Recover the amino acids of this structure.
């Protein structure tokens, strides 16, 4: 048996919160990374996966993090925890390197990418001048940047997100490290780009014979590339083993829950099983009860959008201006009690469509007929009563709630504005009912948004919309920022509410599986155009357009192949 | 919200601490903040007490010989020897104290004539206090008569000015024999009042315009930016002079207005930037989606989120304007002569310093330095407490 390249033994990390309290981020975890192997560290937020990677790199914040004395992180026979700072620095970059989640914020915006790669080469390899530049171009070629000898002189903002991540990878492999730590490297990217980056990482790993420690919250991504999987929760390892074995026959309930609570393309259970269901052992029964989706011609139309166009005009030069067509001639019908899914990559115009219907952007052209009235033709004051009937839930639950309002104030505010409820007592009573409906405890009424987790905040946002009893609810990437298990809970809540109130949803997401699960009809958008639209089951089973097929092919197959 | 409160009691919920109570807790945990806060509060109480007339009410009264040195330095300093000369200068009109008034003015060119007249009238040449007055006041007899009729006894001349000497003068006395300690407290009142009032005027003005410019953007922003640019392109002192000329009246209110309407620009820039940042945030969009009006979004939603910035600016500008008031009064554009402020004290001490009377300068400077330093430290601590990420 070969000796492991990286061996983490009984790693315990404590964070000091204030004078009295501390928080155990890692409660004694152990795992090995063999040479030439990809190990995936999977877990939801708060599981301690990022803390593990920071501990390996020796980048834990010194002021409040303490590593237990008995912990050992052995890399190539040396205990990283006892090395001096100088030794650690020499190791970082040359033997161990790292890729971060956000390429845009990891690259320095005022230097060219070439300069930044050459800097790494200078620091660790002693290359300079032409030698460094040639090596940088070779690296860019290797990570698949087109026209590398031109792109080497461009600045990070001149590149797309995918290309930036490729540059980050080029910098990380510049010194041919033995271990590459990739912390959520594809989370910020579109599905099609994600697939390319994953393929690239797999190819580079084989070619250079390095080990990869791949950190992600998404089990499906892992299935494609990992040899060995470590599932973490609350600072503990729940399960680890060979990738195939973990996916095919997970022994831990939590792993099984993680695998199942993510919606898949070819199955649509009535409710998604959540972690509690697995712990209670009722998940398998749930999976059998299927929900049928689809629309009939006889379903009444709630909203009809005809030829919606939205242009953004930016000034360029002294007199010139540039017009960007964010949405071009978008038309659709939304039927009562049904969901229209809007999918597309970033920049496809799907969010623009949602915001324009809400009149948060003014449409350049087009009509939207709601209740026998073209709502785009109304003045702002005339539109006010309609705001009650069309509501929106935003993507980021951390940003969409006013941090200085208590939850009670947040939920009561729409009622105050629209005169719902006679007095504050009646409104508070209704707020308590709604909190119960979205599954939050009554005492939430007095708390501030920052005291809640992402999923709970999204529930608050939903409760706020429900006060107005809207006919149409626009969900703009409403579950994208949430962990998979929380996402399942929120999706279930949305389904229940639709069943109860007969609301129509416009469900905007980049996640094709989620859209498939939620939608009766689907509209695929690309660069402001509607590429394809139709019944969700038909569209997913037999896509007519090449772009739709490409999108569907990029869905990570790791898990869906097994369930 | 009776039902809510009842509910709350019943469930025994602890209300979550808001931003302000958290900031307050952080502030109390900071030693420098607490000390500086105590100093600032002490100054505020001092000027409040002086405002309602509890202390330093009689700052304008003469309580000592002019240029009396601080009590601690009394023996060591020369001017204490000049007491007599000072008394001579003061003259009978200012000081009616019998023992100090020389009833015969030796420098009077008419002295001989008066003495001659007195002998003719059969009066003694060495006059009593009463007769001394008679010489000056031809109506003195009539007055004495009147007083008698009114039932008052004795001669009123001794009552004209009550002589009350203070033994304790920690900062000495000024040119008119006024207690410098009272004077500097009175000066604190003026300076702090001007500093706070002007800072409040500037903050309200700057915040309002900044909110409008940042929130609405476009043409409103352009127009307000022009307005702002005009203001900030004129040299500060010239602008102050121009406004002073237009208002054409010296007084505390004038100084407040001058400082308020010249000092709003930096607050405007900052608030404008904050509003631009916040109006694009999702929570403001969400407020729009639920139908909140522009005013509501601006002041109910965004303002509480930037209020800490405004508060820190307010605090910074209090310090700035206290200093500005001192400079203005020093240059003579500030408060009128009958009002005392730290600036006018510094102005007076310009001439005194040549003569070696340093205590007025010391008093005004010490008070100002302590308050300004404490207030600046407090502002820093306030900023840290309100935005711990910046630390």
């Amino acid at each position: 048996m070969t000796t492991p390249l990286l061996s983490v033994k009984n790693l315990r990390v404590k964070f000091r919160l204030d004078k009295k309290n501390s928080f155990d981020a890692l409660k004694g975890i152990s795992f090995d990374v063999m040479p030439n192997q990809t190990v995936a560290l999977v877990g939801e937020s708060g599981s301690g996966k990022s803390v593990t990677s920071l501990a390996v790199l020796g980048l834990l914040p010194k002021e409040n993090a303490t590593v237990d004395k008995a912990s050992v992180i052995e890399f190539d026979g040396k205990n990283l925890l006892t090395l001096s700072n100088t030794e650690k620095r020499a190791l970082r970059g040359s033997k161990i390197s790292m890729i971060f989640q956000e390429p845009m914020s990891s690259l320095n915006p005022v230097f060219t990418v070439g300069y930044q790669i050459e800097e790494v080469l200078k620091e660790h390899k002693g290359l300079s001048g032409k030698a460094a530049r040639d090596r940088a171009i070779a690296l860019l070629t290797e990570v698949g940047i087109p026209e590398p000898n031109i792109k080497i002189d461009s600045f990070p903002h001149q590149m797309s997100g995918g290309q930036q991540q490729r540059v980050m990878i080029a910098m990380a492999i510049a010194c041919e490290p033995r271990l590459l730590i990739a912390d959520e490297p594809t989370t910020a990217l579109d599905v099609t780009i994600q697939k390319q980056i994953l393929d690239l990482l797999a190819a580079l790993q084989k070619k250079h014979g390095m080990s990869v420690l791949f950190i992600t919250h998404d089990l499906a991504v892992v299935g494609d590339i990992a040899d060995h999987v470590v599932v973490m929760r609350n600072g503990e390892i729940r399960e680890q083993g060979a990738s195939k074995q973990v996916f095919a026959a997970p022994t831990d309930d939590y792993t099984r829950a993680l695998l199942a609570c993510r919606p898949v393309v070819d199955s649509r259970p009535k409710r998604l099983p959540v972690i509690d269901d697995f712990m209670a052992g009722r998940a398998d029964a749930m999976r059998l009860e299927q929900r049928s989706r689809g629309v009939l011609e006889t379903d009444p139309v709630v909203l009809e959008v005809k030829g919606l166009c939205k242009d953004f005009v930016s000034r360029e030069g002294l007199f010139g201006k540039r017009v960007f067509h964010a949405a071009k001639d978008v038309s659709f019908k939304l039927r009562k009690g049904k969901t229209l899914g809007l999918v597309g990559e970033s920049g496809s115009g799907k969010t623009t469509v949602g915001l324009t219907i809400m009149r948060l952007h003014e449409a350049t052209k087009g009509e939207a007929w709601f209740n026998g009235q073209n709502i785009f033709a109304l003045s702002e004051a005339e539109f006010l009563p309609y705001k009650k009937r069309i509501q929106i839930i935003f993507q980021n639950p951390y940003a969409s709630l006013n941090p200085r309002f208590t939850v009670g104030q947040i939920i009561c505010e729409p009622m105050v504005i629209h005169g719902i409820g006679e007095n504050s007592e009646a409104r508070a009573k209704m707020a308590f009912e709604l909190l119960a409906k979205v599954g939050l405890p009554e005492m939430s009424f007095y708390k501030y948004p920052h005291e809640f987790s992402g999923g709970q905040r999204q529930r608050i946002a939903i409760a706020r919309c429900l006060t107005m009893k809207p006919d149409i609810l626009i969900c703009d990437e409403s579950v994208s920022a949430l962990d998979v298990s929380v996402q399942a809970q929120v999706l279930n809540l949305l389904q229940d509410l639709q069943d109860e109130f007969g609301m129509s949803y416009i469900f905007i997401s980049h996640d094709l599986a989620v859209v498939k699960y939620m939608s009766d009809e689907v509209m695929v958008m690309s660069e402001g155009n509607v590429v394809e639209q139709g019944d969700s089951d038909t569209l997913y089973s037999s896509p007519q357009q090449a772009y739709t097929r490409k999108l569907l092919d990029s869905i990570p197959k790791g898990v869906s192949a097994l369930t | 919200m009776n039902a809510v409160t009842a509910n709350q009691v019943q469930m025994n919920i602890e209300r979550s601490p808001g931003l302000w109570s958290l900031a307050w807790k952080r502030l109390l945990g900071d030693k420098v903040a607490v000390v500086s806060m105590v100093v600032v509060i002490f100054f505020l109480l001092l000027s409040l007490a002086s405002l309602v007339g509890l202390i330093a009410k009689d700052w304008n009264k003469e309580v000592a010989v002019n240029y009396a040195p601080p009590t601690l330095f009394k023996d060591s300093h020369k001017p204490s020897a000049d007491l007599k000369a000072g008394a001579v200068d003061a003259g009978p009109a200012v000081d009616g104290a019998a023992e100090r008034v020389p009833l015969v003015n030796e420098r009077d060119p008419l002295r001989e004539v008066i003495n001659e007249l007195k002998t003719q009238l059969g009066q003694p040449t060495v006059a009593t206090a009463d007769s001394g007055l008679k010489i000056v006041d031809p109506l003195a007899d009539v007055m004495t008569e009147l007083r008698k009729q009114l039932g008052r006894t004795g001669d009123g001349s001794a009552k004209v000015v009550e002589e009350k000497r203070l033994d304790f003068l920690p900062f000495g006395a000024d040119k008119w024999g006024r207690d410098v300690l009272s004077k500097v407290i009175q000066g604190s009142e003026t300076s702090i009042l001007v500093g706070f009032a002007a800072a409040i005027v500037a903050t309200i003005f700057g915040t309002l315009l900044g909110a409008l410019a940042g929130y609405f953007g476009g043409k409103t922003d352009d127009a307000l930016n022009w307005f702002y640019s005009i203001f900030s392109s004129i040299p500060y002192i010239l602008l102050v002079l121009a406004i002073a000329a237009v208002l054409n009246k010296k007084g505390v209110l004038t100084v407040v207005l001058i400082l308020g309407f010249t000092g709003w620009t930096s607050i405007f820039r900052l608030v404008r930037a904050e509003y631009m940042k916040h109006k694009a945030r999702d929570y403001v969009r969400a407020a729009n989606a639920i139908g909140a009006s522009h005013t509501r979004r601006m002041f109910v939603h965004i303002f509480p989120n930037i209020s800490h910035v405004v508060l820190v600016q307010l605090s910074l500008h209090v310090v700035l304007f206290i200093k500005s008031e001192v400079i203005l009064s020093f240059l003579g554009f500030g408060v009128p002569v009958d009002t005392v402020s730290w600036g006018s004290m510094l102005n007076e001490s310009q001439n005194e310093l040549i003569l070696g009377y340093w205590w007025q300068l010391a008093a005004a400077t010490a008070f100002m330095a302590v308050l300004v330093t404490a207030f600046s430290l407090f502002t820093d601590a306030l900023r840290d407490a309100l935005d711990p990420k910046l630390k």
About this structure: Chain B touches chain A through 27 residues (CB under 8 Å).
